[in-house]
Amino acid sequence: MLLGLDPEQREVATTLRGPVCVLAGAGTGKTRAITHRIAYGVRSGVLQPASVLAVTFTNRAAGEMRGRLRALGAGGVQARTFHSAALRQLQYFWPRAVGGELPRLVERKIQLVAEAGARCRVRLDRNELRDVTGEIEWAKVTQTVPGDYPAAAHKAGREAPRDAAEIAQIYSAYEQLKRDRVMIDFEDVLLLTVGILQDRHDIAETVRAQYQHFVVDEYQDVSPLQQRLLELWLGDRDDLCVVGDASQTIYSFTGATPDHLLDFRNRHPQATVVKLVRDYRSTPQVVHLANGLLGQARGRAADHRLELVSQREPGPEPVYAEYADEPAEAEGVARRIRDLIKSGVPAGEIAVLFRINAQSEVYEQALADAGVPYQLRGAERFFERQEVRRAIAELRSAARFGANDPLLDDVVELPAQVRAVLSANGWTPQPPAGSGAVRDQWESLAALVRLAEDFARARREVTLADLVVELDERAAAQHAPTVQGVTLASLHAAKGLEWDAVFLVGLTDGMLPITYAKNDDQIEEERRLLYVGVTRARLHLTLSWALARSPGGRASRRPSRFLNGLRPGSLGGGPRSTGGAGGIERGARRRHRGPVQCRVCGKTLNDAGEMKLMRCEDCPSDMDEGLYERLRDWRAEQAKSLGQPAYCVFTDKTLMAIAEAAPSDGGELAMISGVGGRKLERFGADVLAICAGQEPGEADAGDA
Which of 104, 189, 173 has its CA nearest to residue 132? Predict the structure, then answer.
């Protein structure tokens, strides 16, 4: 049982009594340590198999633990998720505690939430349903009742998909529907088990007599409700071993918190604390980058970070690759992957990891074009997503019957036509606030808009029908074999996995950290997300970013701030290389712009809307409200005469920027983000006249 364990793992395995806290860094063999601990306890007679309960967070992790325990001769140990362990107890004790049969489990929670919304006269689309359901789940695992939801959500900084009072109303109606139909959901399984163990001392003692020793994996991910259940299982005993890493806390939006892990020694002063820092997964080069990333972290979790020490032979330096635009980045990644496969790296040992699922499309296409098989983990393929299929159907209909569609009257350019059609499907010029399904849907539609813009730029005089054919061909080309393919996954979906080669893509400010990460805690969780991505790599690691979204676009993007001081050429880093291992590889030389700073407080701006205004959203505005209203009225008239949505003239943010700057000539107007050469030529005279207090056309008439 102890052969092959390093000194720290051996200490975990042989410390069988009292509270034990294992702080285990990425790749340090934590599962090996705790399974050998349980098996050693069983084989030595200290632990009885039936008295041990090991809990984790996913069925995959629980299955892996059971398999390892069987192989080690400890097959009688229960290894389950929190939910499955609680459900088993609830089913057993319900007749005794309540009487009758256990209520049925809700099979389709979203459908019940939709009914609750309808009962409250609130219509929720598919994506809002997913987000509201997520808010209800968060409320329940944090033990927040419907009436307290608005205050709790505000305190937690939740980006609610609807008005908080509205969500509280739907939450209350959802709970009533379950009571009416005698049903429970998975959160109720935990809540009811907690309730029975709290209220029925005899049942609690029966459970404690059965299970006398507990092991909790991924302890940084426990919610307050799961922690309460664990405390009730334990009673006044302390035979508990917890394993976790605060630096891998990336699920706070579900209610997870590392506080229970970080406070463990305060609750159990006599606890044995073991730190696993020997990294058996990654090369010293990858580990060095991971350590450097956490070395810049701030906050409570950062104060408890672990300094990993690689146990592997040296490998290649991480590669930092800079590209002119997103398609170039995807094509460059596909070429590198193809070369790795030719060199002998199996496709199944390669992963491309991104921040949001909407980023997958360009990589799906690039890999398909390169003839590289791939599989998408944790999300539908881009062209199989419901909002994408619906949008393409709308575009196909518009291509056939556009002459009768008032949305397309006088809209000539293909990108404008696509924007007009997709505006009816939920696309807007500015992304919705916050994260979740609504944001994911918008990102998918925005990807279609960008694709149309790139398609029109590459080919002249294209029509909607041409674009639909192109979309159909792309969709067909992506039905590549998925067995043993390159993995495409979000950083969240990659947690717990590892590959020989990892490509971390789209690493720009605004994407990582994501735009809607505002406060320090949210920013630090984004840093931990990148740390998780880095530590997925065993040997090859490439980090890349694009300076512009599309070919020919303005190179206004900056590499993620998390790479400052780590990538060559950044503040605190080494000299910039033009290529080779550890350097920044670039397809073309470009002039780098300095950071954009708020003209009010001087803070560096990362949000696109704030950069357009040249100030923080919260900083005081000196906008001329009257001028802004005159500009809005003029824009409405222009949009009506052109038959286009108002944002096709100028977006709200651009109008606000104009009203704040009040430009007096074309040069000043051209300096405002969102006023390109074509719009300056088309609308400049009118805008300048309005800014001067004149009616549009007066200046021209006077000059004549």
Answer: 173
